[in-house]
Design a protein that fits this description.
Blueprint: E1 4-9, H1 21-33, E2 38-45, H2 48-53, E3 58-63, E4 71-78, E5 81-87, H3 89-92, H4 110-125, E6 136-140, H5 146-152, E7 160-165, E8 173-174, H6 186-189, E9 196-197, E10 200-202, H7 203-210, E11 213-216, H8 219-224, H9 228-231, H10 235-240, E12 245-247, H11 277-287, E13 298-305, H12 311-316, H13 318-323, E14 327-334, H14 336-348, E15 353-357, H15 361-370, E16 373-376, H16 386-393, E17 396-400, H17 403-408, H18 415-418, E18 425-427, H19 432-446, H20 449-461, H21 467-484
Parallel strand pairs: 1-2, 1-6, 2-5, 6-7, 7-11, 11-12, 13-14, 13-16, 14-15, 16-17, 17-18
Antiparallel strand pairs: 3-4, 4-5, 8-10, 9-10
Helix pairs in contact: 4-5, 5-7, 11-15, 16-20
Bound molecules: adenosine-5'-diphosphate and alpha-D-glucopyranose (GLC).
The site of adenosine-5'-diphosphate has 17 residues, from helix 1, strand 13, strand 14 and helix 15.
Length: about 475
Amino acid sequence: MTPVRVLAVASEVYPIVKTGGLADVAGALPLALKAHGVEMRTLMPGYPDVLRLLAGAAEIRRWPDYFGGPGRLLAGSHDGLDLFVLDVPHLYDRPGNPYVTADGVDWPDNGVRFAALSRIAADIGHGLVPAFVPDVVHAHDWQAGLAPAYLHYDNRPRPGTVMTIHNMAYQGKFARELIGTIGLPWESSFDVHGLEYFGGISFLKAGLQLADRITTVSPTYAHEIQSDEGGMGLGGLLRERASVLSGILNGIDIEVWNPQTDPHIAYRFGAQDLTFRAANKAVLQQQFNLDSSDEAPLLGVISRLSWQKGLDLLLEAIPTILAEGMQLALLGSGDRDLQDRYKAAARANPGRIGVMIGYDEILAHLIQAGSDALLVPSRFEPCGLTQLCALRYGAVPIVARVGGLEDTIVDIGEAGTSGRDATGFKFGPVTADAFAGSLRKANAAFHDKPTWRRLQLSGLATDVSWRNRAGDYAALYRGLMASSA
Ligand code: ADP
Ligand code: GLC
């Protein structure tokens, strides 16, 4: 196995900083790649939490003026992850969420903040750190999208580049004037084959246009984003670059998500003792002020509250949940309007609908361990991770038939034809009616104990780990090295 060195570039990395699945992927993939002979180091911004956790990191470069203020490049490690940290206080020393102010508005200088990250990635790609000269630079999402661009517009020999799309909805769009302040050549880069995007610029578009390979996080999403609708403005570009685009499914960290050892759940269990889930369900009902009942199917949701996730459809399906004698426990945060509507639904239906607004890692584990079914009614879903955790915890997924949800769940109706065992319920089109129909179907299956148990057991037997998927990334990196040799 030829050893490969890869610099990953990500704006969030679990367990250090996380707002969503990107962090989970950026945190788990490097560990899984070790077994495939890939040495991955990850470059991330020096937000306050990062600097606190990497207090012992070594300074390897220092600049008096990095994009308008002093900056340093640090190297250190945390929880098995080898990291480069770009410490530029005037860009990253801000409390809270990495992208938005306390009022939920994008930081006005996000363009400069993430151009700076991409710039240093390109410099490391060009050999800034002699002890780690990468064969490949792997950029995640728009925040890293300029890394392939900086490498492309510099005429020196360079490593191969991979751009991974975790979500087409976030494209890093800015005014064209930004080019003047981030050190890219105006003449060549403000071009339809470069950063230019409907008169402005887009960091994601730049990465998609200029990286050697493009990946996204499921095969079905790789297909969907080549359409005008799924591509959200970039479908044409992706159709043109289809020969270098592929979909590699996400996995989850099966140590972090292991019901047999999970410190965050009330009662641990495995496939042999699924009946212990009832005890977790009772604790969950208590925490969400739901009526205590083992007979009422408990539906769980762990999600960002955004249009993508289709949770307005779930609000419309509440009459079905009530009529079917089901309960709902929802943990989420995001859109103010959705938050308010869910709080109102909980107030109107005490004992039946429980809502916690916020971000709570520990409660997320308990929901997986105690709910009977986990809902993911997304309008689009590049991969989705909560349904994978659900499979591992014996919560039966009820999901929309889109993106990675299509690829990771086997519907009860398609099991015979696909030759795979059913693991859940999929509905489409993504409408409130179709969703309500799948809830009714799931309720009937729940009351047929052998059927439900079969669904749970085939979920538990599904491989949701990174083991094989990391192998696909390793093969991609090696393919790139071979083609540039
Ligand atoms: P996305 O990245 O689009 O938000 P994913 O399903 O890929 O969706 O990943 C979401 C990750 O964030 C999962 O690990 C999930 O458990 C976690 N998560 C989402 N919302 C919350 C929340 N409110 N509290 C705790 N964890 C959450
Ligand atoms: C994004 C997507 C989600 C995916 C995650 C990790 O946030 O919305 O579907 O699982 O990235 O790739």
